[in-house]
Specification:
With 427 residues, the protein is α+β, with helices and mostly antiparallel strands. It has 2 domains: 17-127, no CATH class; 141-168 and 244-414, no CATH class. The chain is 36% helix and 15% strand. It has a 5-stranded mixed sheet with strand order 9-8-7-10-11. Strands 1-5-6 form a 3-stranded antiparallel sheet.
């Protein structure tokens, strides 16, 4: 089967199913293209022997978006009303937003996508424009180390605090989810009154039906029409479900907004950014740190750093993450330490740094080696350190370039008491 076979199948399904007939033909083609993208990605992962799950295509039962190409929609002259002209019966809708669509020629609008989210319906317009942001060269390079204690630590030692959005919203999310569970039909089946007085009073007014025994397993020969149907949820359950969805949507937007602002501040302040090529899907297997890693959103930050780097012409290099926290940025010695040890102490050169700061220096060193080998960064070694006020948004320091310590350089800091407090380097 090929992509063209799916497009041909769309025309056959339109003749067979009435709901597909009412939909615009190019909208059906867009749905087939998305299905083919999932199939092609699965076979590509299998062909390249990608480790882990290959992403087997699954049937999307509840599709919450529809995409139109050049036909099936009309935009009025003021860009305030969108009319859908296919047979689905949506008709004219009013657009509310800050974008002035009337300033764009209709030839530039290539696609229109209707999307349903927890807080309402959205219309997305895909325009063909060449977006470029003028970047003021600074001659600075930075290595950034992402973490949980600090969201970002750069090679100058400047840090951006982890906002921990999930911790702030956790109590509210639990309350909304408990409310949703109490309003569920399955929760009320077979519910017994509690022993306290308030529960007995509620049970006197709320008579729940007794628990029904589980229905016997139906044989394959049983007709689906005779099987018992699931009870319909109440209107209050639907309201509680919407509230849970809006809470999670707000949490997602908080993470996205913070990652975008941090990435924009990084790119606008530097000419080269080096970061780690982390495999987050393997890191979240740690059941003790999976929640914190998912909340901080390392992959989201990297995606926005690379996006803004392409817009402004800033070099972004992903280096191998192996031993960036173990190797010393002063002399290169590998100092083994567990995750609980947050200070790097080198027994050879006496360098004492924060663990994340040392890792950021190593990331910058590796990134400069790759950039100079590719000819994307000059071979001078006169990197200077510079920090200043906020860039991009408030409460974010300008992340400057660290003064690189050359291998074996004597600018390291020894602990108090001299060499007697340094670890033993014998053996």
């Amino acid at each position: 089967m090929t992509a063209n076979d799916l497009q041909v199948l769309c025309s056959h399904l339109a003749q067979e199913y009435p709901f597909a007939t009412r939909l615009n033909s190019q909208a059906r083609q867009a749905a087939a293209s998305r299905a083919w993208a999932a199939i092609e990605r699965f076979y590509t992962n299998c062909r390249e022997r990608r480790p882990g799950k290959k992403g087997y295509p699954r049937y999307q039962r509840d599709c919450r978006s529809v995409e139109y190409k050049q036909t099936g929609w009309q935009l009025d002259g003021e860009g305030k009303r969108l009319t859908l002209t296919d047979g689905c019966g949506i008709g004219q809708v009013r657009l509310i937003g800050s974008r002035d669509l009337a300033t764009f020629p209709l030839e530039q609008i290539k696609r229109v996508r209707l999307l349903r989210r927890a807080d309402g319906y959205y219309a997305q317009f895909v325009l063909q424009v060449d977006r470029r942001i003028q970047h003021a060269p600074s001659g600075l390079a930075a290595g950034i180390d992402v973490g949980i204690a600090a969201y970002v630590t750069d090679s100058d030692g400047a840090t951006v605090a982890n906002p921990r959005f999930i911790r702030q919203a956790e109590a509210r999310l639990k309350r909304y989810q408990r409310r949703l569970s109490r309003r569920s039909v399955s929760h009320k089946q077979g519910k017994k009154p509690k022993t306290n007085h308030a529960a007995r009073q509620r049970a006197r007014h709320n008579t729940y039906p007794p628990a029904q025994p589980a229905p016997p397993a139906t044989s394959p020969a049983t007709s689906p029409a005779t099987s018992p149907t699931a009870p319909r949820q109440s209107a209050n359950w639907e309201k509680a479900k919407q509230r849970v969805g809006r809470a999670y949507l707000h949490l997602q937007r908080q993470r996205e907004d913070f990652a975008r602002k941090t990435a924009s501040a990084l790119i606008s302040s530097h000419d080269l950014i080096a970061l780690e090529d982390l495999q987050v899907r393997n890191l979240v297997r740690n059941r003790r740190l999976a929640k914190a890693i998912s909340d901080v959103g390392w992959s989201r930050l990297r995606r926005w750093v690379e996006y803004y780097g392409r817009l402004q012409g800033v070099t972004v290099i992903a280096v191998a993450p192996q031993y960036t926290s173990q190797d010393c940025s002063g002399c290169g010695r590998r100092v083994r330490k567990s995750l609980s040890v947050r200070t790097h102490v080198c027994p050879r050169c006496g360098l004492i740094l924060d663990r994340d700061h040392n890792a950021a220096l190593m990331i910058l060193r590796r990134g400069l080696e790759v950039a100079r080998a590719d000819g994307r960064w000059p071979h001078e070694t006169s990197e200077t350190s510079e920090t200043s006020g906020t860039v991009g948004h408030t409460e974010t320091e300008r992340l400057g370039t660290a003064g690189l310590l050359r291998w074996g350089e004597s600018s390291s800091v020894a602990p108090a008491g001299g060499s007697k407090n340094l670890p033993d380097v014998s053996g």
